[in-house]
Amino acid sequence: MPIESLEEQQYTFKADVWAYGIVLWELATRGLIPYADLGFTDILRLLKSGHRLMKPKGCPDNLYHYVMRRCWLEDPKRRPTFFELTEMMEDVVRQLRRGVSGDALLDGHYERVSARSFTVPLTTSTNSSDSTIITNL
């Protein structure tokens, strides 16, 4: 949730834009839970001090910097609109098809995963190395 929703219970289209950036991050991490090891107060403090979720491994640079990070701007007025996001995502896809975005290609190989090939832990890890998912602006 964006700062304005956490502090003042303001839920607007611009708060939805923040949430869209989070959904993109969750997709790029294949379902990790953002800020999983942090409580409400810690999340709010980190967000207010400029920290944001780190770029997921394998996430295209332009998707992270050009789209996600702009969705998480502190000032809601500076976040893109959904119309702008549509255009931004079209740009990202075009660049990925051309192979312009760092370490990822749109048509790249994805690992094949079957339901029998993995398990999901029922508890979250308390290992401090697992909580390095945030970065400062």
Verbal overview:
This protein has 137 residues and is mainly α. Helix content is 43%, strand content 4%. It has helices spanning 3-8, 13-28, 40-48, 61-71, 82-98; strands spanning 51-53, 134-136. Strands 1-2 form a two-stranded antiparallel ribbon. Helix 4 packs antiparallel against helix 5. The chain is globular and about 40 Å long. The model is unreliable at 118-132 (pLDDT under 50).
Summarize it.
Helices cover 43% and strands 4% of the residues. It has 137 residues and is mainly alpha-helical. The protein has a two-stranded antiparallel sheet with strand order 1-2.
Examine the coordinates and then state which fold CATH places here, giving the name of the CATH topology. Transferase(Phosphotransferase), domain 1
Give the overall shape, derived from the CA principal axes: globular
Mean pLDDT: 81
Give the termini separation.
17 Å
Count of domain modules: 1
Structural class: mainly alpha
CATH level 1 name:
Mainly Alpha
| Number of helical stretches of at least 4 residues | 5
Can you identify the CATH superfamily?
Transferase(Phosphotransferase) domain 1
Number of strands: 2
Q: Give the CATH architecture.
A: Orthogonal Bundle
Q: Give, in order, the helices and strands.
A: HHHEHHE
Question: Which value, in Å, is the CA radius of gyration?
Answer: 16 Å
Domain Protein kinase: 1-93
Pfam families: PK_Tyr_Ser-Thr
GO molecular function, one term: ATP binding
Protein name: Protein kinase domain-containing protein
